[in-house]
Design brief:
The chain is an alpha+beta fold. About 30% of the residues lie in helices and about 20% in strands. The protein has 3 domains: about 210 residues, D-Maltodextrin-Binding Protein, domain 2; about 120 residues, Dipeptide-binding Protein, domain 1 (Alpha-Beta Complex), CATH 3.90.76.10; about 240 residues, Dipeptide-binding Protein, Domain 3 (Dipeptide-binding Protein, domain 3), CATH 3.10.105.10.
Length: about 575
């Protein structure tokens, strides 16, 4: 899986008084009563959730329903239930397991892979899934230069595409230019239906296909759920795919759940209130939510699971693109590694952990942490909170102070704006702390929260930004981040776009990711990715902040839950079921 920009980060704004809290609860209940007027929507007359329905929340509307184009988790939060790949990674064991392909084998040199597809799979509209869909997804979508997909970044080997061939209706062959170590894991890539989308590709319409204005029935996958209804700003309803291919040990068709409802709740405080009121089945627990929820665990009939440091990356990034519309002085500051190192020393991560995460977190210093396991390099450069060191680095870079304001060598006062997504209270708080921290160095920092999808557009399309506090989904396979770390990657946000020139260290990382993909020896691969993490800690294209402890609160009415850092709570969504009701 390639990395995506993440809107969902555990955060909390403490309500300033009991009166405000009570007012919010009243508003929450009023909104809930309005939402649930729709007959048979989610709740029964008693106000308790209907049987066999899972009610969750999401912090933002999806940007589209097209997983090939997705660069943000606001989209993939939904599409992850609708689409599947040839393989999947087990959320507990981390082993690669069959999905749309029931089995496979490879040549001794690891260059030729043959996959045998499941014959009983159909698309949501009843059309059989075949090898033609696999070829279409790779040859006409992923390797189509006219389609701006991050997936292409992770499947190019030495800049060359894979060759995908149809052997027969249910057999496909991949021919690789070199052995490709992460290949099997990356084949969790979503497969899309040829019969619905091929004409759109031919007419040049694919990039606008499956937007949020499409009729739900038009969004067709093979996954355990299908899109039932979408109301912007209100909810997304996913209905059980009654023809899903997977069955349980007794032969009963999966999934067990009849419906998943995603309530769109931009304010995470409102999500907490709804969960406490019994109107949500699960939420991510932020550090400062913990003391609010933990005392009610037994009374509320839920369990809080602590599963470890998040794999996600939370960071401050500066626009180093020399072709951007930024003033020349700001381009010079942001491109100066001493400037970035100084600011890294000025960010008080322990204060962020204490005041924003409620003590549930660890400092983040690089693109991987201990939860990533084997590939994590603990021996990178770390930037402790040290204002004296920060001042020394700024002086070394030619900056000076006058009346407690920082100026560059040309006499320009240092001032810039940090943007972050407004619906993420944690990021707004972290940005505010960073704003105060940098003020101690004489920098004037403005804070501009904006809607998440607007932020993604500025970051990846218009390039109209100075600094952004945002996050990326993480993973255990370094190659999954190639769309971020390759100098031409779709999410190489600090230096991206036509006319950009990679720095020597970026070129070295390009070479590392190419070599790492070809290297089949795990220990040799680790040495390569250890070097990558060290370079990142030296050059600091991203100023990392903190990793929150991943925690989930889940109602005790579900069985087959296996929460993990990698998989989350619902990685085995097709197996999750509601406990049978006790007979009186």
């Amino acid at each position: 899986m390639n990395y995506r920009l993440s809107f969902n980060c555990s955060g909390f704004f403490r309500l300033s008084s009991l009166l405000k809290r009570q007012r919010v609860i009243r508003i929450c209940r009023l909104l809930a009563s309005l939402v649930y007027l729709s007959p048979g929507f989610v709740f029964g007359r008693s106000g308790s959730p209907q049987h066999n329905v899972l009610i969750l929340s999401t912090g933002s509307d999806p940007k589209s329903f097209n997983p090939i184009l997705a660069k943000e988790t606001s989209t993939t939060t939904v599409t992850g239930f609708l689409f599947e790949g040839l393989t999947r990674t087990d959320g507990v064991t981390l082993e690669v397991k069959p999905a749309l392909a029931e089995r496979w084998h490879s040549s001794p040199d690891g260059k030729i892979w043959t996959f045998y597809l499941r014959r009983q799979v159909t698309w949501h509209d009843g059309t059989p899934f075949t090898a033609d869909d696999v070829l279409f997804t790779f040859n006409q979508l992923i390797f189509n230069p006219d389609i701006p997909t991050s997936s292409r970044d992770v499947f190019l080997i030495d800049g060359k595409p894979l060759t995908v061939q149809k052997i027969d209706r249910y057999t496909v062959r991949f021919i690789l230019p070199h052995p490709f170590a992460p290949f099997l894991r990356l084949l969790n890539q979503e497969i899309l239906p040829r019969h619905l989308l091929e004409e759109k590709v031919k007419k040049g319409l694919f990039n606008s296909s499956w937007g949020v204005n499409e009729k739900p029935a038009s969004i067709v996958g093979t996954g355990p759920f299908r899109l039932g209804q979408y109301r912007p700003g209100e909810w997304i309803i996913l209905e059980r795919n009654k023809n899903y291919w997977q069955t349980d040990a007794s032969g009963k068709k999966l999934p067990y759940l009849e419906r998943i409802v995603l309530l769109i709740i931009a304010d995470p405080n409102m999500a907490v209130l709804k969960f406490k009121a019994g109107e949500l089945d699960s939420i991510s627990v932020r550090g400062q939510d913990y003391p609010l929820l933990k005392p009610f665990e037994k009374k509320g009939n839920f369990t809080i699971y602590e599963v470890g440091p998040s794999l996600s990356e939370e960071f401050l990034v500066f626009n180093q693109n020399q072709t951007s519309p930024l003033p020349a002085a700001k381009k010079t500051w942001f491109s100066n590694v001493l400037f970035r190192r100084a600011l890294a020393h000025a960010i008080d991560k322990l204060s962020i952990i204490k005041n924003v995460l409620g003590g549930f977190g660890v400092p983040q210093d690089g693109p991987l942490n201990i939860s990533a396991g084997f590939f994590y390099n603990p021996d990178i450069i770390r930037y402790d909170y040290n204002l004296r060191k920060a001042r020394q680095l700024l002086e070394q870079a030619g900056f000076f102070w006058r009346e407690n304001r920082l100026y560059d060598a040309a006499g320009n006062a240092v001032e810039f704006t940090i943007m972050t997504n407004s619906n993420n209270s944690e990021r707004v708080q972290i940005a505010s702390i960073i704003q105060d921290d940098l003020k101690k160095l004489g920098l004037r920092v403005n804070l501009l929260p904006v809607e998440f999808n607007t932020l993604v557009t500025k970051l990846t399309v218009t390039k109209d930004w100075e600094a952004v506090l945002i996050g990326l989904t993480g993973g255990i396979e370094p190659h999954g981040g190639k769309n971020v770390w390759n100098s031409k990657g779709q999410l190489h946000v600090w230096n991206q776009g036509p006319g950009t020139k990679p720095a020597p260290w970026e070129t070295e990382i390009d070479a590392i990711f190419e070599a790492g993909a070809r290297e089949l020896n795990p220990e040799k691969r680790k040495k390569l990715y250890d070097r990558w993490q060290l370079i990142v800690s030296e050059q600091l294209p991203l100023l990392y902040t903190v990793n929150a402890t991943v925690m989930y609160a889940v109602r005790n009415r579900f069985v087959n839950l296996k929460p993990t850092v990698y998989g989350g709570v619902f990685h085995n969504i097709e197996e999750i079921a509601v406990k049978p009701e006790k007979k009186p």
